[in-house]
């Protein structure tokens, strides 16, 4: 067995264009999620004759538009990135979140990544030299093209296996 560990190449990072579309698609799905959840709260309240509508309106007013969106965004990113290592936007654009070894990040990394999204101006942080957002950098995660990563890892491990045959 080899001691070689795969390390991600910067060439695999998802393009700025795809990151932009990831954000737009995720924004749309989070907004739809808020609408659908609100719809079900009202329907369930009506079915059981509970005053869920009034309570839900109070919660949304107290959170405000931004607070409501951020609350749902946190849930959305935590669920999707911890379970699938991808959000709906990343699935559509063919991207995936991984650690430096090209594997699914652990829950701690996903939590840190999600919390770091709340940093003001995080959305502009990719403009630096690294091309990575602060929520990527601080959580030590990378958003890469899934197909390119799989090919690169296959080549790495096949070459590593060939090298071990000679030993």
What is the fold's blueprint, element by element?
Layout: H1 16-47, H2 52-83, H3 88-93, E1 95-98, H4 107-116, H5 134-139, E2 142-145, H6 146-165
Antiparallel strand pairs: 1-2
- Give the strand order of the largest sheet, numbering strands 1, 2, ... along the chain: 1-2
Main pleated-sheet profile: 2 strands, antiparallel
Subunit organisation of the chains: single chain
Number of helices in the DSSP assignment: 6
Structural class by sheet pairing and helices? mainly alpha
Fraction in beta strands:
under 5%
Helix content: 55-70%
Low-confidence segments = none
Polypeptide structure, described:
- With 167 residues, the chain is mainly alpha-helical.
- It is 63% helix and 5% strand.
- It has helices at 16-47, 52-83, 88-93, 107-116, 134-139, 146-165, and strands spanning 95-98, 142-145.
- The chain has a two-stranded antiparallel ribbon with strand order 1-2.
- Helix 1 (16-47) runs antiparallel to helix 2 (52-83) and helix 2 packs across helix 4 (107-116).
Descriptive labels:
mainly alpha; 167 residues
